Amino acid sequence: MERQEKRKIWSWVSYDMGNSVFAVTVMAGFFPIFFKSYWSGDAAASLSTARLGYAVSFASLFVALAAPLLGTFSDNKSNKRFFLALFASFGFLCTASLSLIGAGGWVWAILAYCGAISGFYLANIFYDSLLVNLVGPTKRAWVSSLGYAFGYLSGGLVFAINVWMTLSPQTFGLFDITTAVKVSFLFAALFWALGTWVCFSGVPEKSDNKPRQDNLKATWKTLKSTFQTVKQHRPAWTFLLSYWLYIDVVNTLVVMAVDYGMSLGFESKDLILALLMVQWIGFPAALGVAKLGEKFSVKKALLLCLAVYGFVCIWATLLEQKWEFFLLAGLIGLTQGGIQALSRSYYANLIPENQAGEFFGFYNMLGKFATILGPLLVATVGLVAHALFGEQGLGIAHLDSRLGFGSLLVPLCIGAWVFIKSTTMAPSQP
Q1: Tally of domains within the chain
Q2: Domain shared by 111 and 179, yes or no
Q3: Staple 412 to which of 106, 166, 249, 403, CB 3.0 to 4.6 Å?
Q4: Is 208 domain-assigned?
């Protein structure tokens, strides 16, 4: 590989390394804890969970609606890098602003967080699209995996440092845990900004020279055509429905698990250590689950992963001890990466090879924006349960939070059932 090509690839990978720090430190880690204990400290657990759940659902819905239009502009005259930098900058500036919000300021925290995750998801659209012109088709899978692997590594390493900083703030010359968490938000913004700058300056972009006024109309026609084409392939279409349902649960567990643990009264340091454990288990486990798919068939391995997630949802409603939370975190770490990889490979075997680009474009859009139903369900069921049963919860501690989190079992089971149905109409899978 030429030196210049290596530089372009590592510049592209650097963005994944930067924004992964935000995904782990802010989205999955400190924001849910800080939001419940610091910004919504005077609210009931079910209410703070509802606030977070609705915020995540709203931001995800906004991105889902805006993505097709923004994707149109990304195809115009070499402006993918511009929109990547624009939305990433908006995201990491919103992230940095979290460090300025005082206790009780849950409204400002929600607004800043919605801005940060919207910038994160929207910037990823343009980041992913840069891969097409970066390397040829034979190298794209390897380069994409490189970004995923080093994103996992950088996210885990920086998060470990941030966890150390919150557990021992005096070691870093900080006053208390609150200051340490706010500094962690700044760290996440800084790494995200650094990755954005390296990617923007080091990754070139080819222009297609399409006229802007014609491209918008053409893009909507393409989206409609692709939608109709996918619907005609019933095995692929049915699998996509199942995928959207169960991957929504997987993604919801990432963004809501720490909040749920807080609702049950677990200490924040234990929840953070459990999340850190998920990070370190996840990457090698993804490779191991993929091997299971090769040995026993992708279908069987996927069903095993879905069964594990069903077990997690059921046991989560019965949680009492700290060791149980760690055990469930370990189970999620073992299956989280594997279910993503297996879903992609299973889908690849369902679609026509000469239309892979169209079909995977639809698949990726569903995967990116499948964090709407789950948080909305958790928030709504939790609020309804709190209104019906009150604080006492029929003598069951934190019944409202337990029922809210347990409601994830519904879309998961429906998704698993639809997946099983899809296998009866699909060609045999290896």
Answers
A1: 2
A2: yes
A3: 249
A4: no
Verify that 197 and 325 share a domain, yes or no.
Answer: no
Is residue 142 predicted with pLDDT exceeding 90?
no
Of 202, 234, 258, the last residue of a domain is 202
How many of the other CB atoms lie within 10 Å of CB of 265? 12
| Contact by Cβ (8 Å): 422, 239 | yes
In a domain, 214, yes or no: no
With cut-offs at 50, 70 and 90, classify the pLDDT of residue 216: low
Distance CA 396, CA 147 (A): 45
Q: How far is CA 30 from CA 159, 163, 212, 255, 277, in A?
A: 10, 9, 42, 11, 15
Strand ranges for 83-218 from DSSP E: none
Would the CA dihedral through 57, 59, 62, 63 be positive or negative?
negative
pLDDT bucket at 338, cuts 50 / 70 / 90: confident
Mean pLDDT of 197-213: 71
What predicted TM-score, i.e. pTM, was given to this entire model?
Answer: 0.72
Phi, psi of 43, deg, nearest 5: -100, 155
Structural domain span for residue 387:
219-430
Task: State both tokens at 48.
Answer: 């703070």
Q: Which of 145, 174, 202 is the last residue before a domain boundary?
A: 202
Whether residue 172 sits in one domain with residue 87: yes
